[in-house]
Amino acid sequence: MSSYELDLITIGAGSAGVRASRIAAGHGARVAVVEEDRPGGTCVLRGCVPKKLLVYGAQFSAEVEDAVGFGWDDLDPAHNWGDLIATKNKELDRLAGIYTNLINNAGVTVLEGRGVVTGPHSVEVAGQTYTAERILIAVGGWPYMPDIPGLAEHAISSNEALDLPHRPDEVVIFGSGYIAVEFAGIFNGYGATTHLVYRADEPLRGFDSELRTAFAEAAAERGVILHPSTSIAEVTGDDDQKQVTLTDGTILTADVVMAATGRKPMTASLGLEDVGVAMQPNGAIKVDADSQTSVPSIYAIGDVTDRINLTPVAIAEGHAFADTFYGNMPRRADHSNVASAVFSMPPICSVGMSEDEARDTGMTPKVFAASFRAMKNTISGRAEKSLMKLIVDPDTDVVLGAHMMGPDAPEIIQGIAIAIKAGATKADFDATIGIHPTAAEEFVTMRTPR
Predict the structure, then answer these.
(1) Which pLDDT score, from 0 to 100, does residue 74 have?
(2) Who is most buried in 216, 272, 331, 358, counting CB within 10 A?
(3) Would you say 21 and 108 are in contact if contact means Cβ atoms under 8 Å apart?
C-alpha cells in the first residue's frame, strides 16, 4: 500500500487537468483535483468557448450585408449586447456544471482553493496539506500586460473583454496574435470602430506569410483599421474615454483599450521553484516527452509548459499521462502536424509546414495555391478572396502542409489534417473526387505547382 493519501493530486481543473484526473481515476487511481475558481479552465470559462460564441454572433452583421446581394431588402437589425452576454454566461454556467459532474462521476475528489506545492509529494490547499505519489500541474496561462505607461491602469485583457457590460463604440486592440485578431473581428462585427495596433509588418506571426498578407487585406476590407509596425507609447484618460498615443505619433481615442499581447504560465506563487522544479525564463515549466519535470514525482501538462498552447493538445497530454502512469498503456502525446485555427473574420486555419518552414529546412517545396472569390461573394458583392495552399515534398510527393483563409476554413482543414497525419501524397489528393460546388474541392483540384 502507498504511504501517501492519494495517488495523484492535479492542480487545475481546466480541460487538461480534468481529462488527466478522470482517466487516472477510471484506471483505479485515487485522485484529487485542486481548483480555486470553478471547473472548466481557460477554454470553457475565459477562452475558446465564450469567444467562439461571440464570434458566431458577430458574423451575422456580415451576413446581413451579403444578403442584400441576394435580394433581401430593408434589413436593419438592432443588436442587444446585454442579452448576448447574459446568454453567453448562461451557457458557461451549463458547461461548468457538466465539468463538475464529470469530475464527481469519475470519483475524483475536488479540493477548493489555491494549491501550493510544498514538497515533491505534498500540496497545501486552504491551510491543509495533502500528499500524493505524483503531482500534476495543469494551471494554464493568464493574459500578459506589457510594461507601457498607463496600459495596466486603463486597458483590459481578453478576460474582461468577454464580460463588458456595454459594447464599446470605439476600441483599440494591441497585439496581432490569435486573441487580438479574433477580438478585432468580434468588435468590428458588432459595429464598433476597431483599431488593431501591432509591432510586426503583418499580423499572425507563425502562420504562412501569404496567408498573413491576405488576412490583413481582408480585415481592412471589412473595416478594421490596421496600425502595423507600431506600438503603444502611452495610454491616458478616464473611465469613459482613453487616449492612446502610438510610437509613430498617431493619437487614438477609444472607450476601451484591450491588451492582447500574449499569455504567461500561471506558475507564480505555486511553490515550484522552492521544491526544485526547473523553469523557463517566461515562467513555463520545463518537461520531457513524458511531461515529467526535473522533480521526478511532479509533472506538468497544457499551456503551463508552453509547448503547443491549444486545448486539444493539452487534453491529449493529460490523457497520455493518465494512460501511461495509471493504465499500463505507456504512450506520449503526438505534437506533430497539429492543426490550428484562428476564428478571425475571415477565419484562418493551418496544419503542417508553412512554405517558409519548408524552405528553412533547405528544401525547395512544390507549392500549390489558389486565390479566388468564394461563389457566395460573387453575388453578395464582397471583394474578399479565399486563399488555399498545399506544401508538397518534391522528392516523396507527401503533402507537408495545408493552409486556408476563407469561409469554413477550420471545418475544411480538420478533414485535411487527417490526410496529412496519415501521410497522404499529392497524388492521393489528386485522385480524390471533389464535392461540387464547394470551396473545399479546390484542395483536390490544384494541379499545377507554382
Answers:
(1) 79
(2) 272
(3) yes
pLDDT of residue 75: 83
70-94 as b/e: b if 16+ CB within 10 A: eeeeeeeeeeeeeebbeebeeebee
Of 79, 154, 403, 436, the active-site residue reads: 436
pTM of the model: 0.95
Strand partners, 196: 173, 226
- The Cα–Cα gap between 111 and 331 comes to 29
As a whole number of angstroms, the distance between CA 7 and CA 2 comes to 8
Sheet containing 251-254, strands listed edge to edge, beginning at the edge strand earlier in sequence: 232-237, 242-246, 251-254
Nearest alpha carbon to residue 37 among 123, 121, 139, 169: 139
Given a contact cutoff of 8 angstroms between Cβ atoms, the answer to whether 319 and 19 are in contact is yes
Identity of the amino acid at 66? D
Low-confidence ranges of the chain (pLDDT < 50): none
Rg (CA), the chain: 24
CA 146, CA 150: separation in Å to the nearest integer?
10
pLDDT of residue 61: 94
Q: Does domain 151-261 have CATH number 3.40.630.30?
A: no
pLDDT recorded at residue 128: 97
346-444 has which fold? Enolase-like; domain 1 (3.30.390)
Q: Is 26 exposed, middle or buried (0-12, 13-18, 19+ CB in 10 A)?
A: middle
Question: Do the domains 6-143+264-326 and 346-444 sit in the same CATH topology, yes or no?
Answer: no
Whether a cis peptide bond, with omega within 30° of 0, leads into 330 is: no
Q: What per-residue confidence (pLDDT) applies to 1?
A: 52
Question: Residue ranges per domain, the chain?
Answer: 6-143+264-326, 151-261, 346-444
CA-to-CA distance for 204 and 178, rounded, in angstroms?
7
For residue 177, what pLDDT is reported? Answer: 97
334-357 burial, b at 16+ Cβ within 10 Å, e below that, comes to: eeebbbbbbbbbbbbbbbbbbbeb
Q: CA 134, 139, 144, 150: dihedral to nearest 10 degrees?
A: -110
Residue with cell 470519483: 107
Distance of alpha carbon 432 from alpha carbon 390, whole angstroms: 15
Q: Which CATH code for domain 6-143+264-326?
A: 3.50.50.60
Does the annotation count 436 as an active-site position? yes
